[in-house]
Amino acid sequence: ISKDTENYFGIKPTVTAGGKHYAAFYASFPFKATEGMKQYYVSKVDYANRIAVTKELTGETVPAATPLIIECPSAETSGNKVDVVESALVAPADNLLTGVYFNYTETAYHTNQVVYNPQTMRVLGVCADGKLGFVKQEGLTAVAANTHYLQVNATCADELVVMGEKEYEAFVASG
Asked: How many CA atoms lie within 13 A of 76 on its CB side?
């Protein structure tokens, strides 16, 4: 598998907000992203202001088992290729996202899924104002495979707007 061949691994965006394409992504392997792709994770939740604060994951290689918000340069999977690599890097300790590997319900005897609880979970989506956020998803029964969710307290608002660290600091300073 290589991003330079027809046998590639690409990330499919599932959310479009502010003219940008995003994917909630979680994989067991480390990878190097394609040019123009950015990776973020949630490091803080400001419940009072309804904000999920993100940090950009910097560096060339993304550690295995790191739930991330991927900002994709393309709406097409073929434009969001990654190279699977070997790496011993570990996921950031302050990442509040919880990754989900499976959503399997093929037989009556075996299921492997994370049941969605709208009281204590938010998933990546678009807020009512059109901004990227973590939202309560109506009608969702289980979290999709190879994605993630944000664990929240039971009094959390239905929407948490995603804000980068610098934007959040400016927001707090403006008071």
From this structure: 2
